[in-house]
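User: Could you go from structure to sequence for me? I need the amino acid at each position, not a summary. Structure tokens:
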């Protein structure tokens, strides 16, 4: 599953912003080739999700991410809030149940429209809702990994200086996260150059790939870059990083951080060393730029590790984004595995 450009984040704290979110989602659906019925479903889901944010939450946010899976295209909707959360999730999903005196059909309506829907809520911490809608059904089992990504620019910038990429192979998958120095257009130029080099050499080992990217970024301002190759045959992840790209393997209620070296790819990078870490069944890979704080711990969110990777990325973004830089969070889990 590949993400296209145009990911957007829309603040929703008052009713006037519900309409803004609906219009933005409808326009995105049209650009992605949804038919009239599909556009109506996208508009309904975003309207219901945004209305729930206004009624129940504070600091509400809708993230819209375009998707492509072979031929079909889709829209991923993340609705994030820091509201009171849901004490009884099963009741909240049932039509007719409401805590604010409304008809109580919002979450039910969303579930009936969506191809994929998932939710995580923790009392006192807020709720994260995930919905994906497609122009046509994606081919089941077509990918080795389920992927969740949040990649957004710092407030005030129209382009993100971070970038990411994924390439699946016969026995596993290669992942890349790049953070162009600073932010804005020049940072985006550097990170996108890293992605182009990645796609030109997706089968290289992570350390060799970083060497190639280093040469490719000579004429840019440079970037922090990390690459990880997960081999599902040997159950090992090979990781190489330069700069402030963090990598972690989540497994059995624990996490293991992976090592990056100091430097800037394209300018000063003395080492391109690669390290190997166990990646047992049920493990999840997390990589992120330094726009996300490093003190997160999924053990503080009971049940989240077993949720869709997009929900994990969304909750981490909601609670640990620094707010002073672009941010990219990539979460990947093998499709055949059970989350730790």
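Assistant: Here is the amino acid at each position, in order:
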């Amino acid at each position: 599953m590949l993400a296209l450009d145009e990911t957007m984040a829309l603040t929703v704290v008052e009713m006037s912003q519900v309409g803004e979110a609906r219009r933005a989602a409808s326009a995105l659906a049209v650009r992605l080739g949804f038919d009239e019925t599909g556009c109506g479903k996208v508009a309904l889901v975003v309207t219901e999700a945004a209305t729930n944010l206004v009624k129940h939450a504070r600091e509400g946010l809708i993230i819209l991410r375009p998707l492509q899976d072979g031929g079909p295209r889709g829209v991923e909707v993340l609705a994030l809030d820091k509201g009171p959360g849901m004490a009884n999730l099963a009741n909240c999903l049932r039509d007719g149940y409401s805590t604010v005196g409304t008809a109580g059909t919002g979450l039910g309506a969303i579930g009936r429209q969506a191809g994929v829907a998932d939710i995580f809520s923790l009392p006192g911490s807020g709720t994260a809702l995930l919905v994906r809608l497609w122009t046509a059904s994606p081919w089941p089992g077509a990918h080795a990994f389920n992927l969740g990504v949040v990649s957004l620019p710092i407030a005030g910038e129209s382009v993100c200086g971070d970038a990411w990429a994924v390439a699946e192979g016969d026995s596993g998958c290669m992942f890349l996260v790049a953070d162009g120095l600073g932010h804005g257009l020049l940072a985006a130029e550097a990170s996108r150059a890293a992605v182009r080099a990645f796609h030109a050499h997706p089968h290289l080992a992570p350390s060799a790939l970083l060497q190639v990217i280093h040469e490719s970024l000579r004429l840019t301002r440079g970037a922090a870059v990390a690459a990880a190759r997960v081999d599902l045959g040997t159950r090992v992840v090979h990781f190489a990083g330069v700069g402030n790209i963090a990598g972690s393997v989540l497994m059995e209620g624990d996490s293991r951080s992976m090592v990056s070296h100091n430097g800037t790819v394209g300018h000063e990078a003395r080492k391109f060393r690669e390290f190997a870490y166990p990646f047992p069944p049920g493990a999840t890979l997390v990589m992120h730029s330094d726009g996300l704080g490093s003190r997160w711990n999924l053990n503080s969110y009971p049940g989240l590790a077993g949720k869709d990777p997009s929900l994990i990325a969304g909750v981490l973004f909601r609670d640990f984004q620094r707010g002073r830089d672009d941010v990219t969070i990539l979460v990947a889990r093998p499709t055949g595995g059970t989350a730790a």
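One structural detail worth keeping in mind: The helical segments are 16-31, 36-56, 89-92, 106-113, 185-200, 206-216, 309-320.
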